[in-house]
Known about the structure:
CATH class of the largest domain: Alpha Beta
Distance between the termini: 37 Å
Helix content: 40-55%
Low-confidence stretches: none
Largest sheet: 9 strands, mixed
Strand content: 15-25%
CATH architecture of the largest domain: 3-Layer(aba) Sandwich
Oligomer: single chain
CATH topology of the largest domain: D-Maltodextrin-Binding Protein, domain 2
Order of helices and strands: HHHEEHEHHEHEEHEHEHEHEEH
Number of strands: 11
Amino acid sequence: MKITLRQLEVFTAVATHGQVTRAAQVISMTQAAASMALADLEQQLGISLFDRVGRQLLLNDTGRLLLMRARDVLDQVHDIEAIAHGQDSIFDLHLGASVTIGNHLLPGLVANLKHHFPNGQIQISRYNTEQVVAQLLAFRIDMGFIEGPIEDDRFRRFPWKQDQLIFFAAPQHALVGRLLTTADLSAADWIVREHGSGTRQVLDQACLSCGVRPRIVLELEQPEAIRQCVKAGLGIGCLSELELEDAFRAGSLVPLSVPFLDMRRNLDVVIHRHKFISRGIAAILGECGIIPGDQVS
């Protein structure tokens, strides 16, 4: 059996884009050549890697198992080529980040990376924490930055930063200036993040721990939408302090005092356990102050 790097490149491109035509364009091949390379790979392996649904090619179970290994092989080859050409700072990585991290922490991180590694290419997609985990499992992203706790031995989790969730309201809200009780929180209207977000997960756990039953009137995916609704007097909210600094400074929103709830949380970097730590991934971990041995799970 002689599997070629070109076949693996076609396979990973088709897995990413879901069709041969788009994959061929991305890797600068004709559609016919890409189709032939994929067919040859499947023939050599003696198995089908995709389910054919109309013009779409969807990875089957076997394809998903092979995808991570194919990408690791290609990552290692790219590292070899970069070192051989004296270009050890070349990489092309796709990061997935939960909304707060993507909005407030990754821009500075990427700016520092581009300063130290000007040839490195980084794409960032914003999801909630649950979606980041799903993207990692499907190998659609190389690294994840999440706000919620995760206990899954399929991942390597690296502690990065700490964050604090804060309850807040419009300045004219009746709860402003008071030391709140569980009864106050249970009686208030809440505007919160959606299920699947790290913020919602921490909030739900905190409420459960103290017996608060929130009266949720709106669930929204974007922190800006929550801020605007709270500012309009529709209820109280709970978001990361990173999302509220400017509004507190401007006085358009104010923090609420809830001393009986511990709303601290960890922000972590997560990588699939079978993901090869390429030079690009190592560079990002280094920029975060992380070494691979720092993992906690």
